[in-house]
Amino acid sequence: ARQALSTDEELIGRFPEWPLASWENDSAYQKLLAWFEATLPLRSASNLHRSELAALIYGESGQQIGGTATMIRECAVRAIRSKTEAITDEILNEWIAEKRAREAECRSIA
């Protein structure tokens, strides 16, 4: 939102910036992951709230709800396309590897 508003000096002054707090990898975050999973159209349980998967997702998602949602959504699409119908460690690790490769490519261009 900040980026969109930054194109107009008048808008910047009208809307104060309110930074969002980062999540902690705790029971509240695990409940969030369980809620996300319950909304996914997957046939099999992924158990994203398990501590090892929660730590993996937390570490790669930027600790913000938007990053977590993006990661889970994109991994769910992979699960459907691969016909596993669950977000597995393998799917998460593939997503992470591709994300890191994209980030490295962007750094090399800049």
Task: Lay out the secondary structure.
Layout: H1 2-5, H2 9-14, H3 27-39, H4 51-60, H5 65-81, H6 89-109
Can you give a write-up of this model?
By secondary structure, the chain is mostly helical. The protein is 65% helix and 0% strand. It is built from 6 helices and no strands. It has helices at residues 2-5, 9-14, 27-39, 51-60, 65-81, 89-109. It is globular, with a radius of gyration of 17 Å.
Tally of alpha and pi helices: 6
**Distance, first to last CA:** 23 Å
Strand fraction = under 5%
Radius of gyration: 17 Å
Give the SSE order as H and E letters: HHHHHH
Shape descriptor: globular
Uncertain segments are none
| Computed structural class | mainly alpha
Query: How many beta-strand elements?
Result: 0
Mean pLDDT: 90
Helix content estimate = 55-70%
Main sheet characteristics: none
Summarize the structure.
The chain is mainly alpha-helical and 110 residues long. It has helices spanning 2-5, 9-14, 27-39, 51-60, 65-81, 89-109.
Give descriptors for this structure.
110 residues, single chain, 65% helix
